[in-house]
Design brief:
Elements (H helix, E strand, L loop, with lengths): L5 H17 L5 H14 L6 H20 L3 H36 L14 H17 L8 H9 L12 H9 L5 H33 L6 H32 L17 H7 L2 H12 L9 H19 L3 H27 L1 H20 L3 H11 L10 H21 L2 H11 L1 H28 L11
Length: 466
């Protein structure tokens, strides 16, 4: 079930909110848990035993971790956690990738298993792991109430696409949280803006991306349109979904962490990754990079640590060599910046920004490709190679047809609307008008998005792949 669907917006969510509001405080987490399992099982009931098993593993290991006094025994429990968690993740997500790689390298013909990927498995597995590891470190107490822990692990607002919420960030909210009209209002506003980003911008850009992929008349202009559209599509798709998740969290009294901070205004790759999918970056920093030694090691070991983190980041996004190459691409860029370029980039903001945008657009061509050959073909055409014309009538038509939404997307990704509204809110003479116009705008936005969902059939969610 997608947030951006009529079923969710006008059936599932209203019913859950009514049940939640009518239930006493002691049963609110039970309502969240049951509704989350219904939400997850709506499209994939066969994977409910898997997610329930994840809850039971996290609950049992957390209790064992807290009651075990032996450091050696705790280390064994952590090792078991890593093996079982990554084993489940690897089985469902990477088995066919491993088999196809073996077939290609050794010339074998081992049949693929063609297993369906459980939606959100990367997100809820990481949340369960972070909880147990934090209990091991003594950062949090083990949760004795299995309903509370289960509600945290499978909470439907962030179950399938994040943000990755650390248990310690909402530990207190699981047992005692505040509900207010202001929080509900903020939640509705945040959800509606995220829905607009997803339905009106990301989905529209996705049509351009799909049109390019089936064209028989590529050109330099067309491939650049595709590359820019693909880069903006994944941003508005994922950041829109994160906005919706944060808004829903607010409706139920939770404060979820931010996941995006206008990454396209960055002036270096290093800064970009501090602003893009921030909860994933923080997870890998705290549970992989720092345990490996971080930057408090020799330079060779430090480079190795960054390499491991980015290989893990690439593979986390999907079981394909495209994602491996994508991870290596950023290893090289980050190393160049940290060792050579970063100080120079700080002195030249305009050049730094153009440098960043160009490299990120290329990265998402790699990310979005069907395979390595497809990605390389698109990149070479971007720079005039591959015996393609500079333009075709189809590319001009696409530029005219999608130019407005591309411009809107660029302005939105730069954070200009948010900055403008902030300035108006700070001005006493205009803030009162903003307060009047905001609910009208939100209402119209929901109506327009509903119209798009009713009339349109193109409503993909890119992170279902992960």
């Amino acid at each position: 079930m997608l947030f951006s669907s009529i079923t969710f917006l006008y059936y599932f969510l209203p019913i859950v909110i009514i049940l939640y509001l009518l239930s006493p405080s002691k049963l609110k987490n039970t309502v969240i848990l049951i509704s989350s399992l219904v939400f997850y099982g709506w499209g994939e009931p066969k994977f409910l035993p898997l997610i329930i098993s994840t809850i039971l593993i996290g609950y049992g290991l957390g209790l064992l971790m807290e009651t075990t006094k032996s450091k050696a025994a705790k280390n064994i429990l952590v090792a078991f956690l890593v093996v079982i968690s990554l084993g489940i993740l690897g089985y469902y997500k990477y088995t066919d990738f491993f088999i196809s790689t073996v077939n290609g390298v050794l010339g074998k013909d081992i049949p693929l298993l063609h297993m369906a990927l459980p939606i959100g498995i990367s997100f809820y597995t990481f949340q369960m792991m972070s909880y147990v590891i934090d209990v091991y470190r003594g950062d949090v107490k083990a949760q004795k109430n299995i309903i509370n822990l289960a509600a945290y692990i499978v909470m439907f607002p962030q179950l399938i696409a994040g943000p990755i919420v650390r248990y310690k960030d909402i530990e207190l909210s699981l047992t005692s949280r505040n509900h207010s009209l202001n929080k509900i209002s903020c939640g509705i506003r945040r959800f509606s803006i995220g829905l607009g980003k997803k339905v009106l911008i990301a989905n529209t850009l996705g049509l351009l991306v799909e049109a390019y992929k089936v064209t028989e008349a590529p050109s330099v202009i067309y491939v650049w349109l595709y590359a820019i559209a693909a880069s903006l599509q994944i941003y508005f798709d994922f950041s829109g979904y994160s906005d919706m998740a944060i808004g829903l969290g607010s409706l139920f009294g939770f404060n979820f962490p931010e996941n995006f901070d206008y990454p396209y205004v960055s002036e270096s790759v290093t800064e970009f990754w501090r602003r893009w999918h921030m909860t994933l970056g923080q997870w890998f920093r705290d549970y992989l990079y720092i345990p490996l030694g971080g930057n408090r090691v020799t330079k060779i070991r430090w480079i190795f640590n960054i390499f491991v983190v980015w290989m893990a980041t690439g593979l986390w996004h999907g079981a394909s060599w495209n994602f491996v190459i994508w991870g290596l691409y950023f290893v090289v860029l980050l190393m160049l910046e940290k060792l050579v370029l970063l100080e120079q980039l700080k002195k030249t903001k305009v050049i730094g920004h153009l440098y960043l945008i160009s490299l990120v657009i290329i990265s998402f061509v790699i990310f979005d490709g069907e395979d390595i050959h497809d990605s390389l073909s698109n990149i070479t055409m971007m720079f005039g190679f591959g015996n393609v014309p500079v333009w075709t009538m189809e590319s001009v038509f696409m530029l005219i047809n999608y130019g407005t939404v591309l411009l809107i997307a660029i302005i939105g990704a730069a954070g200009l609307p948010a900055l403008g509204i902030k300035k108006l809110c700070e001005n006493k003479s205009t803030s009162k008008y903003i307060n009047i116009l905001e609910p009208i705008f939100i209402g119209l936005l929901l109506i327009i998005c509903t119209g798009f969902l009713v009339n349109g059939s193109f409503n993909p969610f890119l992170y279902f792949r992960f």
